Amino acid sequence: MDEQPMRQQGHMGSNTGGGTTTSDQNRTHSTAANTANQAMEQAKTTANQAMEQAKTTANQAMEQARTMARNIGDQAAAAAADPGATAQELARRAREQAGAAGDVLYRQGQRAGEYLTQNVNEYPLTALLIAGMVGYGLAYLIHTQWQGQVSWRPEG
User: Fold this and answer.
1) Positions in the chain short of pLDDT 50
2) What sections of the chain are H helices per DSSP?
3) 129 vs 31, 97, 134, CA distance in Å?
4) What are phi and psi of 149, to 5 degrees?
5) What pTM does this model have?
6) What pLDDT, on a 0 to 100 scale, did the predictor assign at position 83?
């Protein structure tokens, strides 16, 4: 009868690696890999969303700038056709339109900032990865440009 408890103790004692088995390690590794993959996918998705938002905001700003330029061109053509229009009237109109366009651009910039702030707060790891990639890209560009410069030395 004493043999049975001894065998069980010997069997239980064979796993002395701190309770971690190879299958536990494999599961942990698999879970870590899945988490890393999910973080990368989330980073890609967030980056794509931010890029689309920036594109939309830029397109809207470009369209407003085109509209403003068209309006100013129309006003200039009208002023040339109508000698009674004064430079002060044209300046007043341009100032009003520039003020309105500035307000619209400010609001769009504010919305874009709020959108980015929200995404940074929701996905801090993703934001950190994106910021790191942007920083690395800028450093690479600066370093490449700096390495390509030839320093000027007077001959003599």
Assistant:
1) 1, 3-17
2) 3-13, 22-81, 87-122, 124-148
3) 20, 40, 9
4) -80, 140
5) 0.36
6) 60
